[in-house]
Amino acid sequence: MMxxxxxxxxxxxxxxxxxxxxxxxxxxxLRDNLICKLRRNETVFPGIVGYDDSAVPQIVNAILSRxxxxxxxxxxxxxxxxxxxxxxxxxxxxxYVSGCEIHDNPYAPICRxxxxxxxxxxxxxxxxxxxxxxxxxxxxxxxxxxxADLIGDVDPIKAARGGHELASELTVHYGLLPRANRGIFxxxxxxxxxxxxxxxxxxxxxxGDVQIKGYPVRLPLDVALxxxxxxxxxxxxxxxxxxxKDRIGSEIxxxxxxxxxxxxxxxxxxxWTSRHGAGPAIPRFVREVIEQIAFSAREDKRIxxxxxxxxxxxxxxxxxxLSNAERRAIRHREAVVVPRVGDIYAxxxxxxxxxxxxxxxxxxxxDTVVREIxxxxxxxxxxxxxxxxxxxxxxxxFDLGGEVGVRDSLPTGEVWAQLESIQGxxxxxxxxxxxxxxxxxxxxxxxxxxxxxxxxxxxIGRKEERVFTAGEKGPKRVEQAPREEPPVLKRRPYN
Length: 495
Known about the structure:
Elements: H1 8-12, H2 18-23, H3 26-39, H4 55-64, E1 69-72, H5 79-85, E2 94-97, H6 112-121, E3 127-130, E4 136-140, H7 147-150, E5 152-154, H8 156-162, E6 172-174, H9 176-179, E7 183-188, H10 195-198, H11 202-206, E8 210-211, E9 218-219, E10 223-229, H12 242-247, E11 250-253, H13 260-270, H14 284-299, H15 312-332, H16 341-346, H17 349-352, H18 359-364, H19 366-386, H20 392-399, E12 404-405, H21 412-419, H22 425-428, H23 440-456, E13 460-462, E14 467-470
Parallel strand pairs: 1-10, 1-11, 4-7, 7-10
Antiparallel strand pairs: 2-3, 5-6, 8-9, 12-14, 13-14
Helix pairs in contact: 13-14, 13-15, 14-15, 14-19, 19-23, 21-23
């Protein structure tokens, strides 16, 4: 910003002409910059996955229409991230009267302080600049939000110190909405805002101005208003009042990932997997099982559909499973960190807190429900790789009395020494994309996944201490009944 004009006089002879700054409002600015992105075939919202054919085109249409809009969707659907990404459609810098709380246009100030300053300083009026991120103001709606928080109020301390009358504009303490002037104002979870406070948004949305505390102080603000909310039918905490809904230009629905691959892409993008020390290697099938847990939970009747299952669940689960594998690698000084299915069970604390259970789920308990969901998810992913593959040789090994322990407290080498002895198991790992001389950590993860898949289909058993054994459906060994001894006859003594 070294070469930018810093006074009103310099500003008049720059690219920031009076006509450009006065006639081009925020929604025009968003529209113009969006059109440039579309012409250059750039990604409108980088990092947003799964909305290319649904929400994103609708948001683009709303911006091109210069609409205020609302994103409706369950938790964990990237609503806040999309709203924050709108600041990328603003100009790199915007001039305003230096020191102004509501970022007044130097050519058309609306607050009394800036009008008096320009009257005193004229062409020497100092000018400052706003970055795009400074022009985005966000408020989380809560029931205790007041009109003073959003719009503003008269500050008696200002009046006393400055010797002003209470009706003077110079005594006003501006709320968040005026401070977002010439920018974007976002309200998250709009239904949580009390109805009488929602009414306070009417004027700014329809007439473009606000009035503070009943005094004749009207501010023709230039603001793009955007909102987020859970669908009205799904929340009992509050609702959006009808007159406010009527003034919102576009209502856009968000959704969870439609496919497993989309979910994996989001989780891979958001999860913290770059750990210090041993470099992690996360098998594809482990990522698929973790993502399938979220998909299975969204289908489960014991999970509250109105609450939803956030995309944060697989993100937290992957991070926690990786941490359990990291702990094992540190303890045994192993070079590579590879999470396994057993580590997903160890990551249950990252899952249970993110599920709202229905009555049936509450009766069974969160831990039981989550264990069953993990088992179902493992079974589904197992079928993707091994459907039609003959596993009888592996199952028979257990039916003949074989047992193998895969506790995460054991070194990887010791676990693999047990797993590779299972007849027919090493040959089956190629279906998971493993090479013959793959790292032993990857081989253990793959072999454990196969056993977990067989256990999920009840073909082999597993004890609580993670020892795989023969399953209930396996052939039972016939045991001979003990031979009964003939009764011993006792002689009666003679009298």
